[in-house]
Amino acid sequence: MNHYLSATCKRSMIVEQFLIKDLMVPISEYATVLEGATLFEAYLALEKAQEEYDHNKYRHRAILVLDCDGRVIGKVGQLDVLRALEPKNEQVEAFEDIQKYNFSDPFILSLREQHLMQGEPLADICRKTGRIKVENLMQTPTEGEFINESASINTAIHQLVRGSHMSLLVTRGRHIVGILRLTDVFAAIFHTMKECGID
To answer: Which domain holds residue 172?
Structure first.
């Protein structure tokens, strides 16, 4: 539960005193699928989680992938899905190669556009992509993407900035109990600015 939304600013209650567990979204409220699920099934899980989540809060932007024991083994984000829609063939690889010859970005984009217009309709690509297994798209969390639930918000800010992460997995002992989203940390900082004002 995000307690900072109802907190009032007191000099003794400043943003540094927030713990990660105060800002995280519990795993039970996040979109999850089991390993082996398709991307379409993952989308349905995301849609369901968003419908059940408090509509006054930021919407979820990723799906957590769990193994058969319920442990988080990966995450599928919006960019992962868009990357899956990108065609993968020799022509596309050729576009990557010609970049080294210093052709302008607009020129390369126009070549890509012409190539894509001759390819499959986007609806067909979406249909095929929806059948991909989530483990083929997911990003496996790195060491810098885990944070203890009792850590400070300063630690979270450092990890988010240093790794350019959109979220961190929150741990309690050896278990992942929630997800700390960049949007929630951002909101906590600006809520504090608003409540405390500027001296």
So the answer is: 3-82+130-196
